[in-house]
Write a structure and sequence with these properties.
- The complex is a heterotrimer of chains A (145), B (221) and C (568).
- Chain A has 145 residues and is mostly helical.
- The termini of chain A are far apart.
- Chain B has one domain: Cytochrome c oxidase, subunit III, four-helix bundle (Four Helix Bundle (Hemerythrin (Met), subunit A)), CATH 1.20.120.
- Chain C is 64% helix and 2% strand.
- A two-stranded antiparallel sheet of chain C has the order 1-2.
- In chain C, a hairpin with a 3-residue loop joins β3 and β4.
- Chain C is globular and about 75 Å long.
- The N terminus of chain C is likely disordered.
- Chains in contact: A-B, A-C, B-C.
- At the A-C interface, α3 of A face α6, α7 and α9 of C.
Chain lengths: 145, 221, 568
């Protein structure tokens, strides 16, 4: 590791943008240095949004409650990703990894939710005649051998 | 060493970490799906279930975790600027916040286990311990009846989600302890701090999951 | 810039390295703590071969039991255990990690001209996780086996009284999943960050494109099965009621979760096989691969589409009809990129100078078996036919053709193709060809009758059957024996070659990707001198010296350091 020259290493396989020059910090620093003021501001924003979430939850808005709560959570998560996790200053490819994962999350949640909503009435009707009875573990009659 | 430059090494580690975080999201995704499905099926029980949870404790934990995210991000800055003392302080603070989170969690869990607000068929809260809002609508309700209406399912999901998240917090504490020891030895400098950065990324994802868990579990309208 | 060993004098004399990665350090410990991707790959190769033999052993037992319509050698309980362990071992321990973790691990950094994978420690860790999974499955075997079917559907699995073999199986799959994820992210990071100057994504060999697509699935799908089986483990122990209906859970959701991984997992299996296929077909046709970009992007397309078709495993499982229709439609889309690949391979053969070496025979069998497996998949994708054929031998034959037919032939083909590079020895070509033909014949004899038996109503997972199916089962069993014999033959001549085989030249086949510019076996650092970066299919840069000395780079290429090809 000692034979590496002091200058910022040149990454010859950059996907997306190259790293931003640090506007603060020592010569040769790798990566973007966040100012402490910006970090504190981010925490402030997150705390304010937390208070708003709690406040909104005390009011009964019907279906809008969940929309509001998730909306605020998404904003908070984006703030964490963009500033705390440096995605604003990072290589674009890392950003796309996150987006891609979230797309698959959305697809999985959405599809299974849709499917179970459609077949749920089968279970509900079945349960009318066969109510769920409480079975403590000890009397579990489904053992195999 | 199989990298040409330290920069290449740093960005490789970071790319791998982001891929790992991508899989973390998919890992939690199943539980969020289960939550969504069962919340849709048992809307009423999920609503009443949130009275068993104390939003003040949940809110406190949110604040604790958000603060630890700040100290985690700050530790990266300290490592980049080679502020050794600052690095040690921020790493220790992050570790302590994570510990505080787990202590609050411990009190929440032990209370629920105590009154019997647990998963599946083991759900058996005495009528006296039921939340007033629930008794207002259903007087004389027993734990068994609630269980058959889906209350046990809520607590199965509650314990799985917070439990899995808690395991991640514990792993994070281990990682921060490890970073602290390495920082004490002076392993990090402005051109070699990938471990601090990547653990912080992991820690932010743990925080991010909690940002969703808090309203979904504690604040159901 | 010099080209290393291949630049030897015109006499064609080949220098065999005295010190290489296999003997650079000695002792068991030097292997167990190695960070060298080549040694880890060899350890993987040994481990997956053990898994293959274990899974194959169960297959032979199953087929022997089915020789007659009544009980032959296994009790009904043991029959259930045999098919469960056959499925679980073959899927989780052989086909999924088989090609990427062994061949991929060895070849990927070398095709990039790199010294190692991006994260060597993570690589070693994933091998250890794999071995823990393997040991767990062996423990299950000694604890009385597992009879839930490899899919571990609740309530028949987690709903029972607590038993160790289930706990170990869930943990094993969880751990194996973790191993797979680590391999995947390591591969992606390597391909992004360790490519040499002058090699863009479009210059990478197609094997690497295939591994890239595979790794994407490994990273994005495997965690879901990890969570599912982790939840099942918790549910098995505490009966929490997420999947178990008797506690208020939804077993259909388990199937959704399970297939969200396990369908893409089919592409984790088959994509690396397709990658091997592209290399072998181009090399032994001595022709630049036809439709490079189409093959590369169709790998990515298969990976992406693989995520949106999982519901076709659930047409008769209580999934809603709406979901069934959508999944049926989406499933047909997988045929497009698959067909693009087959078309391009056949077009690569066209007017090529085809050399029927053993790997090529495997590659041609692949096209045939994958073709049949893929086309019968279309029948199964349409709901009406599927309801009729579901859980019959038609399904068995289909997925064995498409998964095993392609993966096993590509795995064996790849092992033969890279054997000289990995071990520095040539195997017996005649025996290699005989074994390859036996695999092809054995496969068809085993599974063709199963298609017929399936359409006539022979259900899967039954130890006893109606007399009218006897003939199909007997033919099928004979095929399985031929396959088994072929595997034994291969093990024999491959192990023999390690000790008595001819020493291999650096490039026996005239292949053009970078790994062939190193010595056979490679140096500890892979290349003693930086390889000349050139197109993976620029065969015109190589000239034949002699049968024994293989191919060498042409003098102009060595002198200028540039490819002679005009294709890229």
């Amino acid at each position: 590791m000692t034979d590496v020259p002091y200058e910022t290493g040149h990454d010859h396989n950059v996907q997306g943008h190259d790293v931003h020059e640090p506007h603060e910090g020592l010569p040769g620093t790798i990566g973007h240095v966040s100012s402490w003021k910006s970090l504190v501001k981010v925490l402030g924003a997150l705390l304010v949004l937390t208070v708003i979430t709690v406040a909104v939850a005390q009011v009964d808005l019907g279906r809008m409650n969940i929309v509001g709560a998730l909306g605020i959570a998404c904003v908070k998560a984006s703030i964490v990703a963009l500033w705390f996790m440096h995605l604003r200053y990072d290589k674009r490819f890392n950003f796309w990894i996150l987006v891609c994962s979230l797309a698959f999350v959305a697809w999985m949640v959405g599809y299974i939710l849709m499917d179970s909503a459609i077949y749920q009435h089968n279970i509900t009707e079945y349960r009318k005649d066969h109510p769920l009875t409480v079975k403590p573990i000890e009397s579990d009659g489904h053992g195999h051998e | 060493m199989h990298f040409d430059t330290l920069h290449q090494q740093y960005s490789t580690g970071k790319l791998a970490m982001w891929l790992f975080l991508g899989q973390e999201l998919l890992f939690f995704c199943g539980l969020f799906t289960a939550y969504a499905v069962y919340r849709g099926n048992h809307q009423e029980m999920f609503h009443y279930a949130h009275y068993f949870l104390d939003w003040k404790l949940g809110g406190l934990n949110t604040v604790v975790l958000l603060t630890s995210s700040l100290t985690a991000a700050w530790s990266v800055r300290c490592a980049q600027l080679e502020q050794r003392k600052g690095l040690l302080i921020t790493l220790a603070l992050t570790f302590l916040c994570a510990g505080a989170f787990m202590v609050v969690k411990y009190f929440e869990y032990s209370h629920k286990l105590h009154i019997g607000a647990v998963w599946g068929s083991n759900f058996g809260v005495a009528t006296a311990d039921l939340p007033p809002a629930l008794l207002e609508k259903y007087p004389n309700m027993t734990g068994e009846q609630l269980q058959s209406m889906g209350m046990g399912t809520f607590f199965a999901i509650y314990f799985c989600m917070t439990g899995l998240h808690g395991i991640h917090v514990l792993v994070g504490m281990g990682l921060y302890a490890w970073l602290f020891v390495r920082a004490l030895r002076g392993s990090f400098n402005r051109r070699y701090y990938g471990a601090v950065d990547n653990v912080a990324l992991y820690w932010h994802i743990v925080d991010m999951i909690w940002i969703f868990l808090f309203p979904l579990l504690y604040l159901i309208g | 810039m010099a080209g290393g060993i291949v630049e030897k004098p015109a006499s064609g004399e080949v220098i065999h390295p005295k010190v290489h990665y296999l003997n650079a350090s000695k002792g068991l410990k030097s292997w167990l703590v190695t960070l060298d991707h080549k040694r880890i790959a060899i350890m993987y190769l040994v481990a997956v071969s053990v898994a293959l033999l274990l899974g194959g052993f169960w297959a032979v037992l199953l087929r022997t039991e089915l020789l007659g319509p009544r009980d032959m050698i296994l009790s009904n309980d043991w029959y259930n255990r045999a098919f469960t362990l056959h499925g679980a071992v073959m899927v989780f321990l052989f086909i999924i990690p088989g090609i990427p973790a062994s061949l991929g691990n060895f070849i990927l950094p070398m095709q990039l001209g790199a010294k190692d994978l991006a994260l060597p420690r993570v690589n070693l860790m994933s091998w250890y996780l794999y071995v823990i999974g393997l040991v767990f499955f062996l423990a299950v075997l000694f604890l009385g086996g597992l009879d839930t079917g490899w899919t571990l559907y609740p309530p028949y699995s987690s709903g029972r009284d607590i038993q160790w073999n289930l706990i170990l199986s869930y943990s094993a799959v969880f751990i194996l999943g973790f191993s797979s994820i680590l391999t995947g992210l390591n591969f992606i990071a390597t391909m992004h960050k360790l490519r040499p100057k002058g090699m863009s994504m479009y210059h990478m060999p197609l094997f690497l494109w295939a591994l890239y697509a595979t790794s994407l699935i490994q990273v994005l799908a495997t965690p879901v099965v990890g969570l599912t089986l982790g939840l099942s483990l918790v549910e098995h122990m505490f009966k929490i009621g997420i999947f178990l209906p008797q506690y208020g859970g939804d077993p259909v959701m388990y199937q959704h979760f399970f297939w969200f991984y396990s369908h893409p997992a089919v592409y984790i299996m088959v994509l690396p096989a397709m990658g091997v296929q592209s290399e072998v077909i181009a090399t032994f046709s001595r022709k630049h691969v036809f439709g490079y970009k189409a093959i590369g992007w169709s790998s990515i397309a298969i990976a992406a589409i693989g995520f949106i078709v999982w519901g076709h495993h659930m047409f008769v499982s209580g999934q809603s009809p709406t979901a069934g229709i959508i999944f049926s439609l989406l499933t047909f889309f997988v045929a497009i990129p698959s067909a693009i690949k087959v078309f391009n391979w056949v077009a690569t053969l066209y007017k090529g100078s085809i050399d029927f070496k053993s790997p090529m025979i495997y590659a041609l069998s692949f096209i045939y078996l994958f073709g049949i497996g893929g086309l019968t998949g279309l029948f199964l994708a349409s709901i009406a036919t599927n309801v009729h054929l579901h859980d019959t031998y038609f399904i068995i034959a289909h997925f064995h053709m498409v998964m095993v037919g392609s993966v096993l032939t590509a795995f064996l083909g790849g092992v033969h193709y890279w054997w000289p590079k990995m071990t520095g020895r040539m195997y017996n070509e005649t025996l290699g060809r005989i074994a390859a033909v036996m695999v092809f014949i054995g496969f068809n004899v085993t599974f063709m009758p199963q298609f017929v038996a399936g359409t006539r109503g022979m259900p899967r997972r039954y130890a006893n059957y109606l007399d009218e199916f006897t003939i199909f089962h007997q033919i099928s069993t004979i095929g399985a024996y031929i396959l088994g014999a072929a595997v034994v033959l291969q093990a024999g001549y491959l192990i023999h070659s390690l000790f008595k085989g001819k020493k291999a030249p650096p490039n026996p086949w005239g292949a053009a990707s970078l790994e062939w510019q190193s010595t056979s076996p490679p140096d500890f650092h892979n290349f003693t001198e930086k390889p000349i970066v050139m197109g993976a299919y620029d065969f015109e840069n190589w000239e034949l010296v002699s049968e024994d000395a293989g191919y060498r780079l042409k003098r102009e290429v060595v002198e200028t350091g540039k490819s002679l090809s005009k294709v890229h």
